[in-house]
Design brief:
This protein has twelve helices and nine strands. The protein has helices spanning 3-6, 10-20, 68-77, 123-141, 159-174, 180-191, 235-247, 262-265, 270-281, 289-312, 321-324, 328-344; strands at 28-32, 41-46, 49-55, 88-92, 102-106, 201-203, 212-214, 221-224, 231-233.
Length: 345
């Protein structure tokens, strides 16, 4: 176990925070959140309240990886918008304090659901929670990026072409065998990338149920979490990714609804969900939605292939990483299903 990742140096951290965060006061107790966050995250219980500290892992990092300063920036920018986010207090870029860059934010009380079928709640509340997830996504994509100071948060334009090129390259670099469905999917996507329609918004990059924290008793979101993949991009990428999960089974930590009776559960079907999003964002409809679903499957398959390859090479931290590779082919087949469904319409 890397103790530098698992713990924090209280002797340097506490006086630093007392000097830089208004009202912060020790003594403090520290507890590391469980889970596979690439940026270690800690709960700080202090005399002045409870906080969350999120840090880069110590050591040498890839230039664009573990960018907690980007997370801090986007959370701060969204503070006065309709997107629910935790309040941030301070970004420390001085790596001498705890060994890496970190930021401090408020600790939010609420519920996080890991199973997309929401077995813990009533049928009525399931529908309300899914509607709230839809509302937050529409609010995110409606943020005026110029007004909140995020116009340079990513490269605008040609989002899907750039993403396709990136993930195709990543897939080829981590490929361990020939997967016919993946080849067919990449050929189709490469020939059917939509023309750039000029839409640019803040996108989350991993928008799903378990990245939303809900109020302890109400079907209301209190914080959208895990902004590590956020950038400027095309809003339909987030929507396609969210709807993809209605078509897929559980894979690793990503829960899905494939094979579930959505009507019985009280969860809206894909078309109803897209219609609600369109109504909230003021658009009539989304053409070629099958592309956005298929693209999301492709991106997830490429990510999983990379994890599996690292496991084979002995570099993955997750003991189940090697087994994830078996899902790449089925994910590509589900993408081809989405394409076939669109062609039938």
């Amino acid at each position: 176990m890397n103790r530098a990742v698992e713990s924090l140096d209280l002797d340097t951290l506490q006086p630093y925070l007392e000097a830089h965060v208004a009202g912060f006061k020790g003594p403090m107790q520290i507890e590391k959140f469980a889970g596979g966050q690439s940026n270690p995250t800690f709960k700080l219980t202090t005399a002045s309240g409870t906080y969350v500290l999120r840090r880069q892992p110590p050591g040498k990092l890839l230039k664009s990886a573990h960018a907690v300063d980007r997370e801090y920036r986007v959370l701060k920018a969204l503070a006065d918008t309709d997107v629910p986010v935790a309040k941030v207090y301070h970004l420390c870029e001085d790596t001498s304090v705890i060994g890496s860059m970190f930021y401090l934010m408020e600790y939010c009380e609420g519920r996080i659901y890991w199973d997309a079928a929401l077995p813990e709640v009533s049928r009525e509340e399931r529908g309300q929670l899914y509607d709230e997830m839809n509302r937050v996504l529409a609010a995110l994509h409606s943020v005026d990026i110029d007004k909140v100071g995020l116009s340079d948060y990513g490269r605008p334009g040609n989002y899907f072409q750039r993403q396709f090129d990136r993930w195709s390259s990543q897939y080829r670099a981590s490929q361990t065998g020939h997967i016919e469905a993946m080849e067919a999917l990449m050929t189709w996507l490469g020939s059917n990338i939509p023309q750039d329609d000029g839409r640019v918004s803040l996108v989350h990059g991993d928008y799903r149920l378990d990245n939303l924290m809900f109020h302890p008793t109400k079907p209301k979101a209190v914080a959208l979490l895990d902004w590590e993949l956020s950038t400027l991009g095309h809003p339909f990428a987030d929507l396609g990714y969210l709807c993809m999960q209605m078509r897929m089974p559980a894979i690793g930590t990503v829960s899905g609804l494939r094979g579930k009776d959505l009507a019985e559960l009280g969860i809206p079907d894909e078309q109803a969900y897209v219609n609600s999003y369109c109504q909230r964002t003021g658009i009539d409809k989304i053409d070629n939605f099958g592309f956005y679903i298929a693209f999301s499957f492709f991106r997830l398959a490429a990510i999983i292939q990379g994890v599996a390859k690292r496991a084979i090479d002995g570099n993955a931290s997750n003991k189940n990483a090697a087994e994830l590779g078996q899902h790449v082919g089925p994910l590509a087949e589900m993408a081809l299903e989405a394409i076939a469904d669109q062609i039938k319409e």
